[in-house]
Design brief:
- With 390 residues, the chain is α/β, with parallel strands linked by helices.
- The chain contains 18 helices and 15 strands.
């Protein structure tokens, strides 16, 4: 099955999540994404959990639809192989620390000499410049530095899952498509500097505005509506939102005759409801006590109040909405069989059915790519294999 990006060749030099997921999104859309891995062991995340029968379920999530070749980038010969591949490609994606690509001889200024049309996509924690640019970053670090980590009532709380890696991957994929579109008009490639902290800080843009005119403390504690939040049920947690004036009126019909909630001073006064948020939430929690998540969801839906049950991974797996819309896919994992993953995260009417090929084995496509793309002879490949270069 063809995709929108059919005919685009991408060299994937990435590890972990942000870079690999960017490549996976582009591969889902039909690009030929060639993952360059270390001979023998491959990328480090091939051994990262969760596992099934000793097989990583982590690596396949971010490397489906790709091809794998091997080249030891710690050697001059391996770098030469990578350069030859880049010469015949459209895009290079990397997420090494700042300066590493230059040390290897694969910096943008170097590779555009051999391929002026090349687009280099660099995904780093803090971008290519600035006082933090050379610092190592993981998802939790970016969550903290970007201001997304929740600070409330004397405690901090990070969201579950590597959301900042995913956001960076999406920005990187978007930037790649923009650069390809512009190259179609100008014929020239360019360098994309994708900063995880910049993308994640976008989430806090209105809070930054608040701080700029009202001060930091107001921005930290500021809410724009009330009541909303989490309620503890008998079998889990549920989130609801009744913070606008119309929604609050619906809540009063759902919980009638409550002396505190029904106080007329709250009826059309969001600011006062925000001030007394804790008091209001205590009353709503008292009403929720003893009910299950399903019972609360049913009551909120009947009152047309937005709500959602906090999902476990198993609940997501069985979710009728995700399954009916085809977002939960079955992907083949070598050595395991079919495994459920999330598929491509949005739909295009022109491409209603996408192909999900398994993540490749280490070097599975080395001979195919080196023979057909780089025009290597059998003798050349055999010599590089004996030297441990590929």
């Amino acid at each position: 099955m063809t995709g929108i990006l059919e005919g685009i060749r991408i060299v994937d030099l990435t590890r972990y999540i942000a870079g690999p997921y960017c490549g996976a999104l582009l591969a889902d859309m039909g690009a030929e994404v060639i993952k360059v891995e270390k001979p023998g062991s491959g990328e480090a995340t091939r051994t990262v959990g969760p596992w099934k029968d000793g097989v990583s379920l982590f690596f396949p999530a971010y490397n489906r639809n790709k091809k794998s070749v091997t080249a030891d980038l710690r050697t001059p010969q391996g770098i030469e192989v990578a350069k030859k591949l880049i010469e015949k490609s459209d895009v290079v994606i990397e997420n090494f620390r700042v300066g590493v690509m230059e040390k290897m001889g694969l910096g943008y200024e170097e590779i555009k000499k051999i391929n002026p049309r090349i687009i280099m996509v660099s995904v780093t924690g803090f971008g290519q410049s600035g006082p933090m640019s050379r610092r190592t970053a993981f998802d939790g670090i970016i969550s903290s530095v970007s201001g997304v980590t929740r600070i409330e009532k004397g405690r901090v709380e990070r969201s579950k899952g590597p959301i900042h890696d995913y956001m960076a991957a999406i920005y990187a994929a978007f930037g790649t498509v923009l650069a390809l579109y512009e190259r179609g008009k100008t014929g020239e490639g360019q360098f994309l500097d994708v900063s995880m902290v910049a993308g994640s800080s976008m989430i806090r843009t209105t809070a930054i505005a608040d701080a700029s005119v009202n001060g930091d403390e107001a921005a930290i504690s500021g809410d724009d509506s009330s009541p909303y939040g989490y309620l503890k049920a008998e079998d889990g947690w549920i989130n609801f939102h009744a913070g606008t004036d119309p929604l609050f009126r619906r809540l009063l019909k759902l919980i009638p005759d409550n002396r505190i909630l029904g106080n007329p001073k709250y009826l059309d006064n969001i600011e006062l409801r925000v001030t007394d948020m804790d008091l209001l939430m205590e009353e709503i929690q008292a009403w929720a006590d003893g009910k299950t998540c399903g019972e609360l969801e049913k009551e909120f839906i009947s009152a047309d109040i937005p709500c959602g049950i906090c999902a476990t991974p198993g609940r997501l797996l069985r979710d009728p909405h995700l399954n009916e819309n085809g977002y939960i896919i079955r992907q083949e994992v070598h050595g395991v069989g079919e495994v459920a993953y999330m598929g491509f995260p949005f739909k295009l009417s022109g491409h209603p059915e996408l192909e999900y090929r398994p993540a490749p084995e280490v070097g599975e496509h080395t001979e195919e790519i080196y023979r057909n793309v780089l025009q290597m002879t059998e003798g050349e490949m055999e010599r590089l294999k004996k030297q441990g270069i590929i």
